[in-house]
Amino acid sequence: MLVPRFPDYPGAMKLAVVIPCFREKAHILDVLERIGPEVDHILVVDDACPDGTGAFVRESCRDPRVEVLVHERNQGVGGATLTGYQRALDLGAEAMVKLDGDGQMDPALIGAIAAPVLKGRADYAKGNRFHDLAGLEQMPGYRIFGNLALSFATKLSSGYWDVFDPTNGFTAIHAAAARRLPFDKISRSYFFESDMLFRLYLARAVVEDVPMAARYGTETSHIRLGRTLAEFAAKHVRNIMKRIFYSYFLRDFNIASIELVLGKLLFLFGLAYGGFRWWQSEATGIPATAGTVLLAGLPVILGTQMLLGFLDYDTRNIPRRPLQSL
Question: What is the pTM assigned to this prediction?
Fold first, then answer.
């Protein structure tokens, strides 16, 4: 049974740790050794590792909590994590922590990452490496810039305007939230963490950031930057459109829906009409009248105000009641 690290959360919950692995043979045993007694199950998912990480763990690790799952075909970090989640649910885990096998995430922080879920405050918790600015000195500059850009894109596509560092894979999820997710639709690639937030928003799950230090060692990144950025951009655009349609037109229709539609129509009309009149004036040499300028400018102003009103509503439309309390 779980030995509670936090005496102020009600009851002891069965906690599982999921470790997706791809070429992590050099780090995995050290990671496993540093996982504390508060964890009931440790699920190592060998995602068709060329270096045989799963077989290496079976041969070298004697921790009875460890179970190795092996993919015959590589499914990506998302696919490996979801395999671990499903096995953890089958084992009766009430909360699950995702921990990478490359040593970049400190297993000593498992309790801290899981705390919001274990205490009932959130359905999903994730690390945020940007909370302590002093700790960012060891983070490469390109990663800082990339995370800033991806964080804003993820806020738009997921609807969680109050979370940051979306690509942080150190996460915890409650079983009640995991069971509501469509595992077959979630991205299997490195877009997994961002897509999880999008799916959690549609399920109206509460998400909380947990401050943590950035930590880099000898691990090697398997991300191909150019292809990954193109994939992220396309999928963020797709999720933005889906979220807005589902949230403001399919599941609900409210004042924000009207502001979005009218605001966009007025803004586009003002731009199109104003652009046409400007071209006409340049072609003929006849200055536009004050009424023409007003007819072009007023829709742009009104449309902008309506779109800002929609954005204000959207930033406040964040889930507040945890699914595990329902």
Answer: 0.88
